[in-house]
């Protein structure tokens, strides 16, 4: 978007203080990033959810660092005036600090991200702190953490009892102390998400976490119903049905090709006068006739 100034982590914290919500959406390629930027999104998330919505995997676990670098670089080309956060995929920040920083370096230098996102709470605080000390902004992510879906027993709402609420609060505070500039709260009860948002000085960004967060994030394909087999989700509001429009458009195209109504006269290019006769003379098959 011409003239748009990208946010930074200082401005985001000020927006929280001023009560101005942050609007974040995922993007996975050049055109989706362009459109999201033109629509005014504050932040773009190159999510490892691309494993589900782009690659067709059952989870985010198969997504690799190379996948994230490739898609992050595409998004960065499409949205040159928007703050871009890129997910660190499964098991790329649970080894040594040196290995973790090498992976971060790739997302920043090759993927052109402005920040990285990491799933987990207190258990990854040391890695978060090391990355922040290296000069890279980190967005935390707690609640439902899809990379740990096999460990936490599926896609379940978090924060339903007092013990779980305390765990989430402790994790959020640990990420804040480690230097994270914000925290994504996914599938967390509204009461717990609101309490965490009030307790932290850094922004919270909710997805299925209710109205008390400092911002919201949704998946591009959910917002636009951009899939053939879309399943409704309680925490999502869809704003367009691209899947139906795409299917209808391609169906009409196939029909036009089959009945020869495409290409029509307005879609073809004509040669100079006399070329038809010369072609017939050259190849001995008479004048070249074309459909009308």
Provide key terms for this protein.
alpha/beta, 2 domains, 292 residues, 8-stranded parallel β-barrel, 41% helix, pantothenate biosynthesis, 8 strands
Overview of this protein structure:
Helix 8 (162-178) runs parallel beside helix 9 (190-199). The protein starts with 8 loop residues before the first helix and ends in a 9-residue tail after the last helix. An eight-stranded parallel barrel has the order 1-2-3-4-5-6-7-8, surrounded by seven helices. The chain is an alpha/beta fold. The protein contains twelve helices and eight strands. It folds into two domains: 9-223, Alpha-Beta Barrel (TIM Barrel), CATH 3.20.20.60; 246-283, no CATH class.
Q: Under the CATH scheme, which architecture of the largest domain would be assigned?
A: Alpha-Beta Barrel
Question: Order of strands in the sheet with the most strands?
Answer: 1-2-3-4-5-6-7-8
Number of structural domains: 2
Query: In CATH, what is the class of the largest domain?
Result: Alpha Beta
* Rounded radius of gyration (Å): 24 Å
The H/E string reads HEHEHHEHEHEHHEHEEHHH
Please state the average pLDDT score: 94
CATH topology tier name of the largest domain: TIM Barrel
Helix content: 40-55%
Largest sheet: 8 strands, parallel, barrel
Provide the low-confidence segments as ranges: none
Q: CATH superfamily of the largest domain, please?
A: Phosphoenolpyruvate-binding domains
Strand content bin = 5-15%
* Total helical segments: 12
Number of strands: 8
First CA to last CA: what distance? 43 Å
Q: Structural class per helix/strand content?
A: alpha/beta
What is the 3D shape?
elongated
């Amino acid at each position: 978007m011409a003239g748009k100034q990208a946010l930074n982590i200082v401005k985001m914290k000020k927006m929280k203080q001023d009560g101005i919500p942050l609007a974040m959406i995922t993007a996975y390629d050049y055109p989706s990033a362009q459109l999201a930027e033109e629509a005014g999104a504050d932040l773009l998330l190159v999510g490892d959810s691309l494993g589900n919505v782009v690659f067709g995997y059952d989870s985010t676990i198969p997504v690799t660092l190379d996948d994230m670098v490739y898609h992050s670089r595409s998004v960065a080309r499409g949205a040159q005036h928007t703050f871009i956060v890129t997910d660190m995929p499964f098991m790329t920040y649970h080894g040594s600090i040196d290995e973790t920083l090498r992976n971060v370096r790739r997302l920043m230098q090759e993927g052109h991200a402005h920040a990285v996102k990491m799933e987990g709470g207190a258990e990854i605080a040391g890695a978060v702190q090391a990355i922040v000390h290296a000069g890279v902004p980190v967005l935390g992510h707690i609640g439902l953490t899809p990379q740990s879906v096999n460990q936490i027993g599926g896609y379940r709402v978090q924060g339903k009892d007092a013990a779980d609420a305390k765990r989430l609060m402790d994790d959020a505070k640990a990420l804040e102390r480690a230097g994270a500039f914000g925290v994504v709260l996914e599938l967390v009860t509204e009461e717990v998400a609101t309490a965490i948002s009030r307790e932290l000085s850094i922004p919270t960004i909710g997805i299925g976490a209710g109205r008390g967060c400092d911002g919201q994030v949704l998946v591009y394909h959910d917002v636009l119903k951009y899939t053939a087999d879309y399943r409704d989700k309680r925490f999502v509001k869809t704003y367009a049905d691209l899947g139906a429009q795409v299917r209808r458009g391609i169906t009409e195209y196939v029909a036009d090709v089959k009945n020869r109504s495409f290409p029509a006269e307005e879609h073809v290019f004509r040669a100079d006068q006399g070329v038809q006769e010369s072609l017939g003379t050259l190849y001995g098959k008479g004048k070249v006739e074309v459909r009308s």
